[in-house]
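TL;DR need structure tokens for one chain.
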Amino acid sequence: MAAAAAPLELDDIQGLVARGYSALKSACFLLLTVEDPTAARPALGRLALLATNGSAESPESALNLAFTSGGLRRLGLDTGELDGFSKEFASGMADPHRSRLLGDVGENAPSRWRWGGPDCPPADVLVLLYARDDGLLGRLEAHVRQDALGDGLTEAARLGTSSLTDREPFGFRDGISQPLVEGLSKVAVGDDAVKAGEFVLGYTNEYGLLTDRPLLPAWYDATGLLPRAPDGGGAADFGRNGSYLVFRQLRQDVAGFHRYLEEVTRRPDGAADPEAREVLAARMVGRWPSGAPLVHAPLRDDPSLGSDNDFGYFATDPHGLSCPLGAHIRRANPRDSLDPQPGSAQSVAIGRRHRILRRGRAYGDDSGDTGLHFLCLGANISRQFEFIQHTWLNNAHFNGLYDGPDPVVASCQNHDATFTVQARPVRTRYRDLPQFVSVRGGAYFFLPGLQALRYLCEGERAGGHR
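>> reply
TL;DR here they are.
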């Protein structure tokens, strides 16, 4: 059903959708299990009062809440029976079909995860905590524990993070290529803007439609806490101002990454070649460590281009002679190179339907693991995150290649994985790439709007579904 563009209701949208809390350098994530729904709802209600909305960034701290499908069911909403919850969310990331789709097999299989897997305590609720510094974060976390844990909620896992910087663990500048969202950025206008409905439910998406969202029969909300859906025959709109949150803990083998680069770039006499090592790493990523894109700096790093995100591939580098066809950034966002008309506005428009808002944080835990808590937001998990993961990152045939999944982050690596550097007159192929990134946990969450959060945490309601 078509809907006219409407201003975003930022007071009802959780803050994580509107911003990545870049001024809040410290963060941690608490995964909670609902043991007693009757006791858990008031405890969650107390946390909901602290939830940060999207209207203004707090200079001190922020708190947001999200729920898995199992968590919503334990709290009284059957995500499998109610209309509008996506199938991938209802089945969960650890579902065997989803595991095959995402490449979560072998070492990455959910049976080996530290959290979110079938043998782990249920991760029903995700509490996302952010603060200006570690001291303030500790006080916020202590308050959350005192206010919530023990009242029907137990801790399934605590995931700490490293202090926020602009570098990811492999040493490359991160967070450059974020979509500009209509209604969230003053510069997001015209063809550069992605419709807000791609990320927030209840608003027009890139198809000019409203993405499916959970609508409840009116009698589920007898007290009228939820807005009524104008397109749903008076149904209570539980999904409005909500978003789906994908969370994956990705371990990065930093030592293995640099060891591989050093081995395959040695000079004929066996000596290390630091310059060749840096060049190969940049070609695998598609950017230099500073963030400068190879499309505009093909031969050497240029820190003055560290924030450069204004480029395409079709007109400037169609054959991958500057940025290899299989490089990570070329897969994660193909820009203007998508069929059926590469280089056209239609190609760019197709790409806008597969964008995600990234909200990840790096970590280094007590076991010595280093990596990324990958978080992204979208209104359609299948068309956005899963499509990128399966069709672009893990796809060995991406961009006309034969045996080359993403050389850096692909989670379905095998002994035949190859990275090809296009060149004239002869290309170079790097065979038997190791797996540098592995999955240590994950889940799909729903990040409700604040009215929906209040509804979820209120007491008994008409309809008998509690």
